[in-house]
Fold:
Amino acid sequence: MSRHQKPAAPAPRRPGPKGWPGRDRGEAILIDPASEFRGTTVQVCGLWPWVVGSGTPMVGVPLGRHIITGATLCCDPISWFQRAKLIRNPSVFFLGLTGLGKSTAVRRMATGLAGYGVLPIVLGDLKPDYIDMVTALGGQVITLGRGRGHLNILDPGQAKHAARRLRDAGYEKQAQEVEADAHARRLTMVSALLTILRKQPPSDVEESVLDQALRVLDHQATHTPVLADLLAIVQDGPAAVREVAVDRGDFGEYQRITRGLEASLISLSRGGRLGEIFAQPTTNPMQLDRPVVYDVSSITEADHDVRAAVLLACWSNGFATVNIAQVLADAELEQRRHYFVIMDELWQALRSGSGIVDRVDSLTRLNRQVGVGTAMITHTMSDLRALPTPEDYLKAKGFVERAGMVICGGLPQAEMVDLTPVIGLSQAEQAMLASWQDPPAWDSRRGQEAEPPGLGKFLVKVGGRPGIPIRVDLTRTEQHIHDTNKLWHQRSRVGTRP
Amino acid sequence: MERSGELTQIRTYGNFRRPTTAGLLGLGSWGTGVLLAGLILVVLVVMIAGLGWGAIAFTALAVVLASVAVRDEHGSSLLDRASAKITYQLAAQRGLTLYRSGPLGTVPWGTCQLPGLAACLRLSEHLDAYGRPFALISAPSTATHTVVIASEPDGAALVDQPQIDSWVADWGQWLTNLGDEPGIEAAAVTIETAPDSGHRLAHEVGGAIDPNAPAFARAMLTEIVKAYPAGSSTIHAWVTITFTAANSSGKKRTPEQVGRDLAARLPGLMSTLGSTGAGATRLVDAAELCEIVRVAYDPPTADLIAGAHADNEPVDLDWTDVGPAAHQAGWDVYRHDSACSVTWQMSSAPRGNVQSSVLARLLAPHPDIARKRVTLLYRPINSAVAAAMVEADVRAASFRATSTERPTARSILDTRSAEATAAEEAAGAGLVNFGALITATVTDPARLPEARAAVDMLSATARLRVRPCYGSQDAAFAAGLPLGILLPQLVSSITAFKDKL
Structure:
């Protein structure tokens, strides 16, 4: 086209040190070398470039926004363990005073995880905080309580069905394991109920009698056994049971040996404090493939023993189901499902009896193998300190130490003494947490309290790294599942009868 | 008791000096030479032509020397400014400040290659000792090779001072090691803040969501993806390390040879970086580097790239296509593709003592500057040379202090700080030349004044004095990118000579 056709004047094949020379070719003629200064490295390092944080990898459920930078923080124990590899075990420990939105943050995490294909399971909701959420997620609400629902502790649940499926698919060994687990679990549960009832554990002979009796029951059972059936076996004394009772062929002796056991089982199976819930066929068996909440809110705190027993049963049942799901997934008979186990008001559960502490203890050590993420929620470390025995406190402290991440809400200054050695809070973090628990200002113009300063604010601590302060804001979608004050919406009126 | 102890233990840093040569009246060594020669000339003129002509010659000499010796608050003399202005205007007249690339452009190859100083850079990819790919940028003009390390600093917001102090000390140690590591020419740290496009969140949620999940959970996640990213920023941090192409015997090595050599050395360099507060580090591969550069020249592509990542589509950027389609280097503003940038340089290091958090406000996201890049440039001085250098500094300073009857307080202070530096060097510290570039990018030119005001304010909080890189905006912009462009090695010999005057 023009006289500057390419063949005439071949352009240089490579640009020069300052770019392509020539008009419109962006050659950098003027270079102003950035002024340089000189210093020793022990001084120049004072202009430290890492003073602002870059945030976290965006992996997990969007939990909240960074208080300082406003960046979105994605965080949940399962994604951070599985995909981001940020934590060493999929668990989170929530600490924070009541009323600052702990449960809300947990629900956000659980709902998000449900969206990611993880099934949230609330094993024993004492408040109830999670029923609305589980209902919204299309999950199963299992109500337990006097006259409200039963949980048959002798019900092998999914175990029988699962064992059959495994056997059909040619997994004989796994099927036996599932059956053995189910057997052990039922034995533990009966022993635990006896312990709670009598305030002392059953003797070794009684344990072996129960063990044998359960086996006999399994062999002859045509329907799912209940405690009354177990009682009948113990009373009848078949040969196998009498053998372990070591009665030397004397049925009178057998009856003498099993007298205490029989009495306790009678108490359990014919109602009584504990029997009412556990001696009847299960009303609502737990399912493998849906979010589940055990609603135990109708059992008041005064019913201390019942609460302990019910919680223990929920845990036992819940974990058994999770276990079976994993075995089935291993055999590729079911989809691999991860579960997010929520233990809210952990302090209440822990205080119910030392059985629970051990249960959680083993869980926090084994959660990687079982394929569950766990969230443990309690108010303060002092709650844990108030456990009946010092051993229990040490174990409970271990939960916080072993938790993959610790999320703290507003906490009183006195807590820091207990907390700092465990999760390494810096002075700045301590001051921040303490400021979040300040009481809200009183807005005299509107005649109501302003929002508490710590509402929805949390500090996410992972290992020794600096905490990430976030604020959890509710979306409109989730507003309605976050109402924990349903009874307080209407004003109280004396009213008249119609 | 303890509390008062804490208060007295705040660490401060300082004693940053502008490298100078020994000379009289604020002149460098060459300037002093000119002064002496000029005075002799004046004397000769007086002897030959008489006092009148002598006075004229003296005035001429004084004017010439004043143009060099009298410096403004940014340390640049009249000669500097005048020569920059003239060079820029000549370049502008010849159309050198414009760049038109791509198939319709004037640049050979017909691609959107990088302009100016970055045009000659070549990119290759190698594997490190752990099999991770990393990009190697080779600059034939300075015979250097550069690697880029991305880091995720934790930040100092909620960290106790002792921890920060130890990080800072480790950072100093890291800088010291740069001087000891064979073949390291320079290093730079780039902290970039950019608006969060929300694509990352959308990607995360979209990628993790289970299609069979409950509708309620999906609705909540979708709402969060829409509502959360608004107004938030992301912070990227990169460390670039530039190695010389020459090996110990002075022979130039190919990128392949350097890549093989670095493969073994990089894991070590990165692991020590972790303890300086830089957090988790990873090597930037070629594809990521292309994206970084492309986004810098054309910010709206950040959304497209993030979107493509979100949909798991490949972002097929070629090194020869990451540059702008057009640019226009103005006197104090740089237009490139869809955005306008202004780059400042640090014209004066913090005077007096500063704390390690001094850069916090400067580096953090600022609402008035959507995109901001702060690059700290380090040129370690070989530890073998450093000792001689600090000694020379001490001599130069004491020469200035003793050359007059009554030394000024400033020159005494200068001597003292030079001596302090020599003492620290003797105690094992390295010597490093450092500078800083700050680039603010806006997509709407109308927002430039706000960005300028914000940078002025932020640099003041960082106790830095900054000056726009007048006339060399395009070069400074490129130098601020994590590409390992070494400005001091590219300047012409005239400029280098000017500094000695």
